[in-house]
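Section 3.1: Structural characterization of target chains.
Under the original work plan, the team committed to producing a structural model for every single-chain target entering the pipeline before any wet-lab resources were allocated. The record below documents one such target. The sequence was received from the expression subgroup and is listed exactly as submitted; it comprises 181 residues.
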Amino acid sequence: MGLVMTKYYVDVAGNYLGGFSDENPAIPQGAIEVPNPPNHASEKWLSGAGAFSKELTTLKFEKNLEINLARLADNQTTFTHLGKLFACDLLSRGDIDGVNGRVATRGALPNDWVGGWKSVDNSYIAIKTVAEWNDFYDSMIAQGQANFTKSQSLKAQLSAATTAEQVAAITWESHEADIQP
């Protein structure tokens, strides 16, 4: 049996939420990891001497939300396929998923298929086979995975941050090179 690590969490107000092990990772939504629990369960985790403060805890909570919103926004912008940018906003994603549903359930492109997809620059790429469609769809998935990986990297930096300045330095834009699949 491997070593079980316990991590300790507080909410945005500094209230201790408990310790959670790797074997039971049911961490409450919005919880922020702290280095150790308070001395008493009723005590707020606001100690000094290099530890977190309520202010830092709040900043981390807000930065976590900022990262989530940036990922959502990037997932709803564009993705690259065959060197072209394609829209992935809510309308475009609905159309893409509709065609993909047809391909997934019937193994074929729609009967009235137009033969390709329009890129952001208004040019078209030909998509004549299910295999070509799958490649197109996989490009969209790859961008989403890259955005997820980027968000997890930023959240690891956020977890390690010990000052308000370190938290403020963590931005989605500062890692733009990380999002290309």
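Confidence is low (pLDDT under 50) at residues 46-51, 177-181.
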